[in-house]
Write a structure and sequence with these properties.
The protein has seven domains: 105 residues, Cadherins (Immunoglobulin-like, Sandwich); 94 residues, Cadherins (Immunoglobulin-like), CATH 2.60.40; 100 residues, Cadherins (Immunoglobulin-like); 107 residues, Immunoglobulin-like (Sandwich), CATH 2.60.40; 100 residues, Sandwich (Immunoglobulin-like); 94 residues, Immunoglobulin-like, CATH 2.60.40.60; 191 residues, no CATH class. It is built from ten helices and 52 strands. With 887 residues, it is of the alpha+beta class. Strand 22 and strand 23 form a beta hairpin. The protein is 14% helix and 31% strand. The chain is flat, with a radius of gyration of 65 Å. The strands form 17 sheets. A four-stranded mixed sheet has the order 1-9-8-4. Strands 10-16-15-12 form a four-stranded mixed sheet, with no helix packed on it. A four-stranded mixed sheet has the order 18-25-24-21, with no helix packed on it.
C-alpha cells in the first residue's frame, strides 16, 4: 500500500495542474490479485475544487467514492495479470469536469523458495509493474521512464541489456537502456493506434564473468491513449423512408467508429442532426434516424439532405468531430389514383368491323413512373354486356386503348354508351381518393352489308339411305336493311360428300346421293356438315352452316373382321378362341350380338356368348393341326345377320405364335420365280466360264535375272490351246488318289517323257534312261506331285525345242538332275512318314508378296481381272472343270 501511495504521489507531482478543479489524469495503483470489499484503492485529492459543489463519480460499478474522496471496492474484484482500468470524474457546477484514469496493477511479491538464483529481499525491483508512456508526447526528448534494478546488483557488479520492438526491432530507436544504471529512456513520440504496447526482453550479466546473474525479464511498456483521432463514418449515408410514414418510423442508422482506445470516452460518440430537424431526429447514442412527422410527400419532395455530426467524448466541448451529409429518399405509395384529362369521350365505328382501335384514353398519375402505383389498368364497367369491346393499355404512354372486339350491327344498335374506369395495379393507400370513371359514347355507322341467314347455324334431321330428291329442309336469308329475301340466290359453299342439292331460288335442301351414316364424312355423333352461301343482287354474300343429323337404319350385319383366329394346341386339353364381331350400325341396331352354330353342324365345335360383342368358340374333340373354317351365325339386336365362316388355325405355339404354319402346296408367282432363280444363276455361271476359256490373254515377258535357283524358269512360248497336254495341269487333291491308283509311271511317260526324249543327257544320264531307271510305281502320289509340280508348276514347256534353245534350263537340269535322282532313291527306302518332313511339298499358296505369284492354272492372268470368285464356285464347278480337262 505504501508503494501505491508513493507511486501515486510521484505521478501527481509530474502531472500539470490547472487553475480549475483538478485531479490527476492517470493513476497507477498496485493491488492484490483479488481486491476484497471495502479495500481502499486510493483517495482523490480535490483540494483545488470547491468542496461544496464538486461531484466525484466512478464509471466502474464495482467501486464507490466516499465523501472523503476515498475510492473503495464495493465488491470483490479480480484484477489478474492484465490489470483493470476505470475512470473517475470530478466536476463542479461552475466549471468543466476532469477525468482521471485509474489503472489497477497486480504484482506478485512472492517467488519460489527453491530458486537459489534469487536473493531474498523484501523489495523486489526486478519485477516492476508495466511502465506507461503517453502517446504522441511532445517531449522534450530523451525522457527517462524508470530504472530497472536486479536483485543481483546488491552483491555483484552487473550490466544490463535488452532487446525487442522499439529498440532493435521495428520501430527501432524508440527506447534505450543504460547498461550500468538500468535507466529506461524513451527517445521519440509513439502512436498508440499503431503500437499500443511494447514488450522488451531485459537481461543482467556479471561485469567480470559476463554470466547472467538473474533470470531474463520481459518489461511491458503500455502506450496511454490520448484523444487524437476524430470519429469516422463507416458506410454511406443513404436511406429510404416511405412517404406519409408515421412519426417515429426508423429511417436508418448512422454507423461510425473511432481509432482511439476502446471502452473510453475517446471512442464514445454522440450523434447530432444539424439540419431538417422539422422532419427527422437522431438518437445521440445509437445514431438511429427517425421521422418526427407524417407529412413526408414524395410528390412534393422526393429527397432530403440532412447534415449529421459525429463527436467523440460523447459530445464534450473538447471532443473531436466530423460531419457528413445523409441523403434520405422518400419512397412512393399509391396515394394518387389515375385521372382522366377529359370529362367524356366519343368514338365512331362502322358496323361489322372487329379488332379495330377506335379510341385512345390518356390518363395522368403523380405516383412514381413505371411502378405498380403508376401503371394503369382500364375496366369497362357498363355497356359491354355483349362483349363487343375491350380496353388494353399502351405500355409506352400508359394510355387506354379501346378496341371493337366483336362486330356491331347498326340495325340492332346505332349507339353504345360505355363507362370506363381507370385504376392502378396496386391498391390505393394513404388517401381518401377513389378510382375514377369516364363515359364513352360509341356511334355505330351503317354499312351496306350482305344478306344474313335466318340463323348462323341450322339443324336438320334425315335418315340414311333416303332416295334422291327427298326434301331435307329450307334455309333462307334476308337483306338486313330491307328485311326481304327477294333477289337472293343460294349456293353450296362446302359439301364434302356431294350428298345435298340446293335450290338457288328457294333455298331448299334435297338429297342428291345416298347418305350413309357409316361414311367417314359423318362425325361420330352422326352429324354431316355443309356450308351455305347467300348472294344478293349487288353480289354481297352471307354464309351459314347447316348441320344434318343422319339417323341410323339397320343396313349392316355383324361381321368377324379378322382373317384368321389362332388356337394353340395344348396336350390333354381342348382349346378355345374368342370370336369378336363388329357392326357398323349404332345401338340399338347393332350389339348385343347373338352367336350360334348352324343346325346341321357336326358337333365338333360349340360357341358360347361371352359379352355383347364376343363369343367363345371351342372344339369338342381332339383335332389335328391345320386350318378349319367354322360356320358361326351372328345376328344383331334386331335379329339381322348371317352365317360367317370363321377361319381357325390349330397349331403348336410358342409365346402365342405358331411354330410352323401349314400352307398350301400350290405355288404362286413368287414360288415359280424362286425356283427359276438358281437355274438362271447356273446359266450365267456357264456363260462366264465359256467367256473365261475363250478369252486370250496378252503375252507378257518375265524379266530375265539369270538367277532362277532351279525353281521358276521363263517361258515366253505359248502353244495353241488344243496342243497343251492335260497332264501338265496341276491335279487337284481329289484327283490325285485316282492317278495314284493307276500307272503313274505310264502316265508320266505318256505326258512328260514324250516331250523330253530328244534331250541328250540330264545330270550325266540320258533322259530316257533316267526315266526308265526310276521306279515311279514305288512312290506315292505326293512324291510324284513334288517332282511334277517342280517341272510343271515352274512353267516348263516340254516341247523339245524349248530344251535345246533355253541353255539356262538345260544348265539347271544338268546341275540338279543327279541330286534329284539320288534323293528319290533315298526316299524310296524310307517309310511314308520320312518324306513328310524332308522334302518340298506342292502348295497352292506361296505367301503374300511372292515374286512368283500364283502357280495355279490361272497364274498368267493379271490380278486386275478380279477372278477370285472362281476359287469358290463349289463342287459343281469342279466337276465341270474335270470334264473340260478330260476333253
Amino acid at each position: 500500500m505504501a508503494q501505491a501511495l508513493l507511486f501515486t504521489l510521484c505521478v501527481m507531482l509530474i502531472l500539470p495542474r490547472v487553475e480549475s478543479c483538478f485531479i490527476p489524469k492517470y493513476l497507477y495503483v498496485v493491488v492484490p490479485q483479488t481486491v476484497l470489499p471495502q479495500y481502499e484503492i486510493t483517495k482523490v485529492d480535490v483540494s483545488d475544487c470547491d468542496r461544496s459543489t464538486v461531484r466525484i463519480t466512478v464509471t466502474d460499478p464495482s467501486f464507490t467514492v466516499k465523501s472523503s474522496g476515498a475510492i473503495v471496492a464495493s465488491t470483490a474484484v479480480y484484477v489478474g495479470g492484465r490489470g483493470r482500468t476505470f475512470s473517475v470524474w470530478a466536476q463542479e457546477d461552475a466549471g468543466p469536469g476532469s477525468e482521471m484514469e485509474v489503472h489497477l496493477v497486480h504484482s506478485d511479491l512472492q517467488r519460489p523458495q527453491n530458486d537459489q538464483r534469487f536473493l531474498k529481499r523484501s523489495k523486489r525491483r526486478w519485477s516492476p509493474p508495466p511502465f506507461n508512456i503517453l502517446e504522441n508526447d511532445p517531449g522534450p526528448y530523451p525522457k527517462e521512464i524508470e530504472k530497472i534494478v536486479s536483485d543481483s546488483e546488491a552483491i555483484q557488479d552487473v550490466y544490463y541489456t535488452f532487446s525487442g520492438p522499439g529498440y532493435n526491432e521495428h520501430p527501432v530507436g524508440v527506447f534505450t537502456l543504460d547498461r550500468i544504471s538500468g535507466m529506461l529512456t524513451v527517445h521519440k513520440a509513439v502512436d498508440r493506434e499503431e503500437f499500443p504496447m511494447f514488450i522488451l526482453r531485459t537481461r543482467v550479466f556479471n561485469s567480470k564473468t559476463n554470466k547472467e546473474t538473474d533470470l531474463p525479464l520481459d518489461i511491458e511498456i503500455h502506450v496511454d491513449d490520448v484523444n487524437d483521432n476524430a470519429p469516422e463514418f463507416i458506410s454511406g449515408l443513404k436511406y429510404t423512408v416511405l412517404e406519409q410514414s408515421k412519426a417515429g418510423t426508423e429511417v436508418g442508422k448512422v454507423n461510425a467508429s473511432d481509432r482511439d482506445k476502446e471502452n473510453t470516452l475517446h471512442v464514445k460518440i454522440r450523434y447530432t442532426l444539424k439540419t431538417r430537424l422539422d422532419l427527422f431526429a437522431i438518437d445521440p447514442a445509437t445514431g438511429v434516424i427517425t421521422t418526427v412527422t407524417n407529412t413526408l410527400d414524395r410528390e412534393v419532395k422526393d429527397k432530403h439532405e440532412v447534415i449529421v455530426e459525429i463527436k467523440d467524448m460523447f459530445g464534450a466541448d473538447n471532443g473531436l468531430f466530423k460531419t457528413g451529409t445523409a441523403t434520405i429518399t422518400v419512397g412512393d405509395i399509391n396515394d394518387n389514383p389515375p385521372t382522366f384529362t377529359k370529362a367524356s369521350y366519343e368514338a365512331n365505328v362502322k358496323e361489322n368491323e372487329k379488332e379495330k382501335l377506335i379510341l385512345r384514353i390518356p390518363v395522368e398519375d403523380k405516383d412514381l413512373v413505371n411502378t405498380e402505383n403508376w401503371i394503369s389498368k382500364f375496366i369497362i364497367t357498363k355497356g359491354n354486356e355483349n362483349g363487343n369491346f375491350r380496353v388494353d393499355r399502351d405500355p409506352k404512354t400508359n394510355e387506354g386503348l379501346l378496341y371493337v372486339a366483336k362486330p356491331l350491327n347498326y340495325e340492332k344498335n346505332k349507339n353504345v354508351k360505355l363507362e370506363i374506369m381507370a385504376r392502378n395495379e396496386a391498391e390505393l393507400s394513404g388517401t381518401k381518393a377513389q378510382w375514377m370513371s369516364i363515359p364513352v359514347d360509341v356511334a355505330v355507322t351503317n354499312v351496306d352489308e350482305g344478306p344474313e341467314f335466318t340463323a348462323p347455324t341450322i339443324h336438320f334431321t334425315v335418315k340414311e339411305n333416303q332416295p334422291n330428291g327427298t326434301l331435307i329442309g329450307i334455309y333462307k336469308a334476308m337483306d338486313p336493311e330491307t328485311k326481304s329475301s327477294s333477289g337472293i340466290k343460294y349456293y353450296k359453299a362446302t359439301d364434302p360428300a356431294s350428298w345435298i342439292n340446293v335450290d338457288k331460288v328457294t333455298g331448299e335442301l334435297r338429297v342428291a346421293n345416298t347418305i350413309d351414316r357409316e361414311s367417314n364424312f359423318v362425325t361420330r355423333d352422326g352429324i354431316y356438315n355443309i356450308t351455305m352461301k347467300a348472294v344478293d343482287a349487288s353480289s354481297k354474300t352471307g354464309t351459314g352452316t347447316v348441320l344434318i343429323h343422319v339417323e341410323d337404319v339397320n343396313d349392316n350385319v355383324p361381321t368377324v373382321p379378322v382373317s384368321e383366329l389362332l388356337l394353340c394346341e395344348k396336350e390333354g386339353e381342348l382349346g378355345s378362341v374368342l370370336v369378336v364381331a363388329e357392326d357398323k350400325d349404332a345401338p340399338p341396331l347393332s350389339s348385343p350380338f347373338t352367336f350360334s352354330l348352324p343346325p346341321d353342324n357336326d358337333g365338333t365345335w360349340t360357341v358360347t356368348r361371352l359379352n355383347a360383342t364376343t363369343a367363345t368358340l371351342k372344339h369338342n374333340k381332339e383335332l389335328p393341326t391345320g386350318i378349319y373354317s367354322v360356320p358361326v351365325h351372328i345376328t344383331d339386336l334386331q335379329g339381322s345377320g348371317e352365317t360367317q365362316m370363321v377361319p381357325v388355325r390349330i397349331c403348336q405355339c410358342r409365346s402365342g405364335v405358331c411354330l410352323a404354319k401349314d400352307r398350301s402346296t400350290s405355288f404362286g408367282g413368287l414360288g415359280v420365280l424362286a425356283m427359276l432363280l438358281p437355274l438362271a444363276l447356273l446359266l450365267l455361271l456357264c456363260l462366264l466360264l465359256g467367256f473365261f476359256c475363250m478369252t486370250k490373254r496378252e503375252k507378257f515377258e518375265l524379266e530375265d535375272t539369270a538367277d532362277y535357283g532351279g525353281i521358276i524358269l521363263k517361258s515366253n512360248t505359248e502353244g495353241r490351246g488344243d496342243e497343251v497336254d492335260v497332264s501338265l495341269i496341276p491335279v487337284p487333291n481329289s484327283v490325285v488318289g485316282e492317278i495314284t491308283k493307276g500307272s503313274v509311271k505310264e502316265s508320266f511317260k505318256n505326258a512328260g517323257y514324250q516331250g523330253v526324249k530328244s534331250m541328250s543327257t540330264i545330270g550325266g544320264q540320258s533322259m530316257n534312261g533316267w526315266m526308265s531307271g526310276t521306279d515311279f510305281q514305288g512312290h506315292s502320289s505326293s512324291q510324284f506331285d513334288t517332282l511334277g509340280g517342280q517341272m510343271v508348276g515352274s512353267g516348263m514347256n516340254f516341247d523339245n525345242r524349248q530344251f535345246v534353245q533355253d541353255s539356262t534350263f538345260l544348265h539347271n537340269w544338268e546341275t540338279n538332275g543327279m541330286y534329284l535322282y539320288k534323293k528319290l532313291g533315298y526316299l524310296g527306302t524310307e517309310e511314308d512318314g520320312r518324306y513328310a518332313d524332308d522334302i518340298a511339298h506342292s502348295y497352292g499358296f506361296e505367301g503374300v508378296g511372292s515374286a512368283a505369284g500364283s502357280v495355279g492354272c490361272c497364274s498368267d492372268f493379271d490380278d486386275s481381272d478380279n477372278l477370285d470368285f472362281l476359287n469358290a464356285l463349289g463342287p459343281k464347278f469342279k466337276t465341270l472343270a474335270d470334264v473340260c480337262k478330260k476333253t
